[in-house]
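Hey team,

Filing this mostly as a record. A colleague (T.K.) asked me to run one chain through the structure pipeline before their review meeting, and I want the input and output archived in the tracker in case anyone asks later how it was produced. No errors, nothing strange. Just documentation.

Input sequence:
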Amino acid sequence: MTSAAEPVTAAILVIGDEILSGRTKDRNIGYIAEYLTAIGVDVREVRVVPDVEEEIVAAVNALRARVTYLFTTGGIGPTHDDITADSVAKAFGVPIHVDPRARAMLLEYIKPEDLNEARLRMARIPAGAALVPNPVSKAPGFWIGNVIVMAGVPAIMQAMLDQVAPKLKTGRVMLAETVRADAREGDVGGPLAAIAKAHPGVSIGSYPFADEHGRPNTNLVVRSREAGLLAAAVADVTAMLTTLPRR
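Output structure:
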């Protein structure tokens, strides 16, 4: 774990034309963000890029320079448009080849006679990368520098994330408490801004919703890494709500 003064940060890069076209609905971003938040890693940015080498390379290089870890999903399968591994290798300026370790993993799941050229693509790993085991279908992801490359299939991605999580640096976990306002967002906006200004070590967000009677309502979510700061801000939010006109 790092010190409180050194937050551990992450970005998520989703790769695939099918996501951008809407043909496939992403199920990985929310899962990764929630998973990382729970272990003390702050997700700072999410991008989605097509299966275009120069765009993947540019995104990888831009994001990995700004965060502790960059997680990618998608584009490491057996088809011609699965170019994530090649693009990451290019971003790092290293060669890519069939890795004997990855090939051996594939052979745990695939018969030797079925390990054709397409399937062998899944064993191509950038030089110097560590493998990320895949307990589901054996084809591994990989970890190079601060970039962790995972599959796009949610069940496989989740299994890979479980494999890498114990090896991640983590910071202090963000604590959160939700206060139901029983007020519209516009009614709490002004006083909430004043409370947020008075509590610089705390993040306060407002999230409107329709309550059980179909009326507009708001959840106020207070976040901090310090339990004392969180409690003080929640107390002020709760007190503020008692001053609002009752509906």
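Quick notes for T.K.: The first strand starts at residue 9 and ends at 15. The chain has a mean pLDDT of 94.
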